[in-house]
Amino acid sequence: MNDFNTLELITDNRGFATLWLSREAKNNAFNAQMIRELIIALDHVQGDPSLRFLLLRGRGRHFSAGADLAWMQQSAELDYHTNLDDARELAELMYTLAKLKIPTLAVVQGAAYGGALGLISCCDMAIGADEAQFCLSEVRIGLAPAVISPFVVQAIGERAARRYALTAERFGGQRAREIGLLAESYPTDTLDQHVDVWVANLLQNSPAAMRASKELLREVGNGALTPALRRYCENAIARIRVSPEGQEGLRAFLQKRAPVWQSREPRP
């Protein structure tokens, strides 16, 4: 499906999709059209039961330079209520990505500024280049990282979020890994090779179990122990054990063979 002007949504015949930010001439900067198209694309992904997971990437040298300057200039000329509508649209994008049922992996190269950190933080996992540059740059232009802030705090913690939101310091891929924004960072010229390794690893896993685990971890949250959470977890393992893929996985393990999801033929 490629009926977009700012994106490409490409489905791999092994059963996953890559959503490319594709405004290369603008360093994949956000504007209202890209935000709307991202929401539509994510809705499409959510509605496709054949997809196991989603990669989020940026075409060209940069993942995303943040907000488009022309769009920001237009926003500055709008009244409060129109700006509020824009903020709600951006929030819809972030919450839609964060709540996607399948696992999400962001792959970051070059610049990732402002709202781009929101997209990365909304993904379940992220990897990137050592040479990538990250920045919560909003305060430099008199703004605040408001809509993305809950997701950034979840990704890197309160203390680091305060530092980088208030200083607008740039930091690289290795620092992003240290604070938890990236799971791993690699030299730029090997990034695609490592993407292939991550994809191959995810393809080993039960699609239904990955969805169930993501839903489980969302419910668990920060792990605060409550009677309700205990009951939820007890029910979760019982449900997955009696599910078709749970039964297949247990049989395959006991019979010392590969489960069917590891041997499925690629879709034509």
TrEMBL record:
Biological processes annotated in GO: isoprenoid catabolic process
Pfam family name, one: ECH_1
GO molecular function: catalytic activity
Family: Belongs to the enoyl-CoA hydratase/isomerase family.
PANTHER family: ENOYL-COA HYDRATASE, POLYKETIDE BIOSYNTHESIS ENOYL-COA HYDRATASE PKSH-RELATED
NCBIfam families attached to this UniProt entry: PRK05674.1
Name this protein carries in UniProt: Gamma-carboxygeranoyl-CoA hydratase
Organism for this UniProt entry: Pseudomonas trivialis
